[in-house]
Every structure is written in C-alpha cells, then in structure tokens.
Amino acid sequence: MKVLNSRTGEIEDFSPLHGNKVYMYVCGPTTYDYSHIGHARTYIAYDVIARYLRYKGYNVFFLMNITDVDDKIIDRARREGVDPLELARKFEKYFFEDLNALGINSINYFARASEYIPEIIDLIRCLMGRGYAYETETGIFFSVEKFPHYGELSKRKPEELTVHRVTPDSTKRNPADFAIWKKRESSDEIGWDSPWGYGRPGWHIEDAAIIMSHFGAQLDLHGGAIELIFPHHEAEVALAEAATGVRPFSKYWVHTGLLTVSGVKMSKSLGNFITIREALSRVDAEALRLYFLMSHYRSPIDFDWSKLNQAKSSLEYLYGVLEQVANTLTTNQVTEDEKTLLERIINLKSQFIAAMDDDFNTPEAVARLFDIAGEVNKFLNIQNALSGQAKNQILSTFRELGKILGILQKELEKAEEIPLRDLIQLIIDIRSELRMNKQYGLADKIREKLKKLGIIIEDTAAGTRWKSVSSQQSG
Question: Which end of the chain, N or C, is less packed with Cβ atoms under 10 Å?
Fold first, then answer.
C-alpha cells in the first residue's frame, strides 16, 4: 500500500508505527448547524479508507472529535437564547443521524471537546513549563517563533503564517501566535475554572489534547479537509511536538479535496448551501457515496446535481446486473465459458485491490467494478444459465468489493421463481414438437445446449426422458 503524505508531499509505503495497529484520527464537526455535502464527501472518504485498512488486515482504531466548544456555537446559542452545550447536543444528534443515513459506521469513538478540559489544562501547563506558551490578560498563547518547524506541514513561509479567525489580539507577542486558553468573565459565557482563571480552550488545542489522550505522542494517520491544513493542523503539530519532543506527530497526513457548488464555496448567503439531508431526499446514500468515490479523495469536486443523478443511474445498472445474476437459472455444471468468465473476474478484482493500494484510488477501483459488471452482463446476454458455483462467486465478489466502498449491500429483488423441473420439462416438450415437425436440426441444438448444462436427454419408445448428471434427478 502507498499513501500520498501531505507532510512530505511524497507517495510513501504505508507502514504503521506499531505493527498492524493503525491509530487514525479525523477532525469531526463543529456542532452548531446541519452537516453539509462537503462534510459528507470528507467523512465518506475516510470511512472507505478505514474500511479498506481493515479489509487488508489492519487493526484500526478510528477516533473522531466533536467540537462542542467554539465561538460559532456560542454565537448561535446566544442568538437563540439557549445553552451552548444544549445547542451542540442537538446538532450532534443530527450529525449522528446523517452518518447513519450515509452508512458511515467505521468510527470507533467520538470524543467531545468539553469532556477533555482536564487534559487540555495539563497540556497547557506542559507547554508553559517548556517555554512554548505565555500568559497575557486575555489568555494563554502559543509562541510560534519558539517552535522552529511551524509552517512545515502547510509549506508556508514565516511571512505567510498570520491568519486570524477573529479580531487580532493586541496582547499577543507575535501576530501569528494563537490562543490555547481564552479568559472570560464567569458571568459572560460558557467556561471552566483553570489555573489562569475562568475561560475556555482554543480550537487547536482541543484536537491535540484529545489525540494525545488516546494515542500518546504519535498516531499513524491524521485526516481532514484540505482547508484545515492551515492554521488548524499546523497548530496541532506544533502543540503536540512542542509538548512531547517527538516527531512526527502524525506519520501520515491525508487530506480531502475542496468541494464547491457552481465553482464557489458553499454559503447560505449565496443560496448554494446543500445539507446532507437535502441530498439524501433526492438520492439514496449509496448513490451519493458512489458519486463522491468516482473522484479521488484528494481531487476537488464541483458538486453537480445532474452528475449525482448519473451516479444514481450507474448504481441502478450495477444492481440490475446483480439481480440478473441472482435470478438466472442455476445449473450444477461449471462450463468452460464460465471458467473463463471467473478468471476475468479474479483478474479484475486484483486490479481493484491494486487501485486501492495506490493511495486509495477509488475512481480506478469503481471502474474495475463496472468492468466486472460488463463481463457478467456480456456473458448473460449469450448464456441463459449459471452454475451455482459461478453465481455464488460473482455475487460474493460484488458484495465483497462493494462493502469496501459502502455500496451494493442492499437486499436484491428476487424474480418469481419457476420450479426447475417444470422449466426443463417445458423445454423437452418444445423439443418433442420440433421433432414431430421434422425440425431435427433445432431439436438437436436444444439437446446439445441442455447437455452442456448437465441435462441428458434420452429418446425412448415410451417417450423422451431426461436426467441431471450431477443430481441424478429425472423426469
């Protein structure tokens, strides 16, 4: 397996820090609003990565945070006249409902920032003790100039490192320094007591403290949307490595590409904000997953409803092939043509795995899945039956590879079954009529076709009889 590491910018062999154990972390939502399709794209991508790592035999612990302490939550709660944590819990519930609807089930544990205040305070103490953080009248700040590697992850020069989410704080020593504890009046807003007075943590230190609480000084794979590289992920690296002295904080950094709508970032003011719930009201979850997986996780996506509908049609085609396989007449004998088909499917499955081994290349993997469907469809357009062995192998291959992608897992619609004995007898009766009409060529062709399927016909003075070579049933 190879992964493009955002930290180094290189394609690297995937080799976890602790054998087959993989410590994986992805930045979760800030729960102040409904999750949108940009979130869906990101979380589907990491769901597939976790699924595939487990498929390859890795023991994955997938951790995701819930940012339930943040300016956006506090501002909305203030506008609505509710408690910030009450608001956060409401939208956290909606987030979990969205994940469930999308079939995202690979995450082992969700960690709320508000439940890690003691760990955050301990980390701040450590950073201050090591000289990386300082106190002012407004809070505790991390000094970026004390950390020589700041900017390495985002590939930014020192003069490009000043980014403000809010109004710059004049008490800071350096404009690039960022808050790790914000002092607040106890009557003003949500907060906790600390050695530096009442307040609440900054955004960046929440994730760092959560990760270090569960994984220690290092983890294997850290993910998130590309727009989080700076300043958020850059700050996480600085906080963790400054506290522990261990580098790198994450061995592999994996980032998903930006999602836009009509070429611009989603915004409620522009009227192009699409929630996961709205998307799922038009197509089912597997169609949405397929739509996103037809692009590489690192590629930008400009969301398009017409292309989503095309993905829906493509998924219907795959299910159509699956249902055709499931409902095709089952025989007992594996033919030479079937053996050739199964060899092609095994080869295409190997190509699917090779694509996923190449930096989780889902577009190529999906293409191989459609190639398998094409081979099966072509075969069934010529043959009207499949051996039980071939049928099981085809269906299990679709299910197995589809499970990695989170598609093709729904129950198949079954055609009304015709008893096999009755169907064979009908064919025998038609052949007898052909013989009576002296159409011997066509009658012989039916005999040969049935023989290939393991059905032997015997013309006797008492009439035509048949038997199945494998099961020995007769009529």
Answer: C
